[in-house]
Amino acid sequence: MKMVAGLVLTLAFGDWGRAQKWERLGPESGMVVSLEAGAGTDVYLGTADGHVFVSTDGANSWELRGRVGNRLDAVITRLVVDPREQKRIFAAVWYQETGAGGGIFQSQDGGQTWKLLGLEGETVRALEIAPSQPEELVAGTRSGVFHSTDSGKSWGRISPEGDEELRNVDSIAIDPRDPKIIYAGTYHLPWLTRDGGKIWKPVIAGIIDDSDIMSLRLDVSDPDRLYMSACSGIYRSENQGGNWTKLQGIPYAARRTQVIVQDPGNPSTWYAGTTEGLWVTRDGGESWGRTTSKDWVVNSLVVLGNRSGSPGRVVLGTDGQGIQVSDDAGARFAEANQGFTHVVVKQIVRDPSDSTHLLMVLERATPEILESRDGGKSWTLVSLAAEERGKATTGKADLVEEIRASPWGWMVRREDGQLWIWDENRKLWKEWKLVLSASKPRTATRGTRSEAQSPSTPPLAPGTAIAFSNKDAAVSTNAGLLRCQESGNCSRLKAFGPGAKVRAVWLSTTGQELAAVRDGKLGFSSDGGETAVWRDLPVPDEREFLLDVVERGPKKILYLGTSRGIYLSHSAGAEWQTVTGGLPAGRVEQWLLQTDVLAASERDGGLYISRDGGAFWERVDQDPERSRLTGLVAMPDGAILAGSQSEGLLRLELTEKSEAAGKR
């Protein structure tokens, strides 16, 4: 699997001697939430972190155009282009954070810049523009239905406030002949108003189950004919929802039809995007057939312009395969992800003995573990085969909770807490079974036997803290903090015996020095864990998540990462000071400590670099790279690889030292 370097971004930051250069390493593709066709060959794409991509060549290639708002959890569930002004785009947005809401956003420059237009605080799940009155918009939210008569400048509720039934709106349709005729699909039922929202009634005759109405579409050849996709299947009504007929041919027991779209050039052809691939009907819904892999999750689709009777280009937005296109009415599809990089990198780590040897976990429809031996230029899939109870089995990447680089090869921690080590010779994973070595036998007295304790296997504590030296590891278990060998044999670290869970641990390369956080205290040992000095932490317990030490000549600087920022100590924890100098006091999720550079990424986005041990920090990312980072890796040439939760794998080339930092 080749990951080809894509867009290169050169960004200037005032105080830095030269520009910082970012490079998108891919892989191309990713999760698509929404699609909308614009003028000519323009296609707009919305993501789950607020980014908008645009294709100007009919979905052959893509460019990152802008971001809706400033949040990293803005799900763009719908994009709508104003037919009067093709550069004006509306976006329906909801935030992934519980209770955060969302809103309607607008761009007037083709998606480059955006502003909040209305419905702030509402979780907006549906948005449509009235075909006969383009200045009218209708939005569906968690709390009901809203209407605008002035292109979104002002909004009014048109569903009963506080109604227990007409809420949780997932889909909207507007009659092209009369903007007062509006259909609304909720998590429960479909509804209809003929007077712009004064009176609503449920239209349920013929529906076999109450279910989420995910998509509502009017037939372009007959607006009285209405198609609806629901959890219980696909329905058709010939009389504006007066009666529904369930269409046969698509099994619905394990699949959800998330979107249904008509081919305007061939009105009898409909496409149904489901959680188990794309289904197509050529006879108005009487018969259906799946034309893609069952593994595809189709979130959105558009049919681009065509001549009557000729097939239009079908563009699918999927969960893991990115963009797929078909030029034969959906019979066959080809990948079209050039320029679209929006993959989740769950984690990336580097081999401590080879800085060009990397391991990465991608979250796709099926999670993947990838390995690179050339510094991230190319990648190959790592087998998931594992040896369990003496037999080789097929593993699952979705069980991988964490990956690490150990002195003995790659290591993964699974969801059940088990640790597995990669056997390079056999190309499979072997469980790292930890065995607590027996204690010394008690001296036998006359007439009795000596009693030696048998080895025991301590269960690993959830969220295991682990650190490696050049030859062994310090591992937190339910039996306390242990020192473990490659064989799995472990011994107790006397100074860190049984007690509360160890939340963070650091081990020197020689294994002689050890630090651990437990019970709101920091324990520091210089004799391999035999004894330790315990000191208070600068923040309450349950808030620390990383522990690292850097040597500056004979001195050691201890860094502690917390939800309140980074703290450092020059005295093994006796005294602490907050790291400021431009670094915000938020949760630092990723941390990289090099010889002359420190790097830290914030939970809400932002990568900060320090070249003077943490006294002065400079932010080195802008919106195209801004994301929650999932890993930072130092490269031999001084560059940094950053795994991103939405932007794939990024490479940052560090240039001259900050002039501002140099003056300090």
Description:
With 664 residues, this protein is mostly beta strands. The chain has a 6-stranded mixed beta sheet with strand order 38-37-42-41-40-39, with no helix packed on it. A 5-stranded antiparallel beta sheet has the order 1-2-62-61-60, with no helix packed on it. The protein has a 5-stranded mixed beta sheet with strand order 43-47-46-45-44, with no helix packed on it. A hairpin with a 2-residue loop joins strand 45 (473-477) and strand 46. The protein is 1% helix and 46% strand.
How is the topology of this model organized?
Layout: E1 8-11, E2 20-26, E3 29-30, E4 34-37, E5 43-46, E6 51-55, E7 63-67, E8 74-81, E9 89-95, E10 102-107, E11 115-118, E12 124-129, E13 137-141, E14 144-148, E15 156-157, E16 169-174, E17 182-186, E18 190-193, E19 201-202, E20 213-219, E21 222-230, E22 233-237, E23 245-246, E24 257-263, E25 266-274, E26 277-281, E27 289-290, E28 298-303, E29 314-318, E30 323-326, E31 334-335, E32 341-342, E33 344-351, E34 354-363, E35 368-372, E36 380-381, E37 385-388, E38 391-394, E39 400-406, E40 409-414, E41 419-423, E42 428-431, E43 435-436, E44 466-468, E45 473-477, E46 480-484, E47 489-492, E48 504-507, E49 514-518, E50 521-525, E51 533-536, E52 544-552, E53 555-562, E54 565-569, E55 577-578, E56 588-593, E57 598-602, E58 607-610, E59 618-619, E60 629-634, E61 640-644, E62 649-653, H1 659-662
Parallel strand pairs: 3-32, 37-42, 43-47
Antiparallel strand pairs: 1-2, 2-62, 4-5, 5-6, 6-7, 8-9, 9-10, 10-11, 12-13, 13-14, 14-15, 16-17, 17-18, 18-19, 20-21, 21-22, 22-23, 24-25, 25-26, 26-27, 28-29, 29-30, 30-31, 33-34, 34-35, 35-36, 37-38, 39-40, 40-41, 41-42, 44-45, 45-46, 46-47, 48-49, 49-50, 50-51, 52-53, 53-54, 54-55, 56-57, ...
